[in-house]
Amino acid sequence: MNCNVLPGTLLSVVSGGACVGMMGALADGAREAGAHTLGIIPQSLVDIEVADRASDELVVTDGMLARKALMIDKADAFLTLPGGLGTLDELFEVWTTGTLGVHAKPVVLLDVDGFYSGLTEWLAGLSAQNFMHGNAMRSLHVVPTVAARTPASCAVTSTS
User: What is the pLDDT along the chain (160 residues), one digit of tens a residue?
Assistant: First the structure.
């Protein structure tokens, strides 16, 4: 991943602490761009040897719930990259806690090449059927590229 897309703005990346997939690519790119990386990973993933041992800081938690809570605490904003179940779990956790007022941090969904278009259409349908407050949909910032991120104050922080 080229983290130079936001010259001078990438100060640190809080990630799920793994060295694989998009999470690993983001952390590697951030370090190459001179950013500080903080990986937060549960012991169960350390045990299967996927921890990003190159992180500037690597915090090992007792489980996934503790990992998510610490990531929410440490991050200034959340950028969700394309990913699978774990990514979706973390997206919904940070988005839900934000809509409930637990935090007021931006939640950004990176929809590269329409990766999340099916999800965002389904979510819009939930809102249209009043299963979700309209403010919840407006609080999820869906962007096609990192450079197009919103709001302007959003830093690059990975939840994937």
Answer: 333 344 456 688 999 999 998 889 999 999 998 999 999 999 999 999 899 999 999 999 999 999 999 999 999 999 999 999 999 999 999 999 999 999 999 999 999 999 999 999 999 999 999 999 888 999 999 999 877 754 544 444 444 4
Return d(Cα 144, Cα 38) in angstroms, integer: 25
Q: What is the phi/psi pair of residue 100, to 5°?
A: -85, 0
**Contact predicate 90/80, CB 8 Å:** yes
Q: Is residue 123 part of a domain?
A: yes
**Is residue 89 included in any domain, yes or no?**
yes
**Overall domain count for the chain:** 1
Full residue range of the structural domain in which residue 85 is found: 10-148
Alpha carbons within 13 A on the beta-carbon side of 123: 21
In a domain, 110, yes or no: yes
CATH for 90: 3.40.50.450
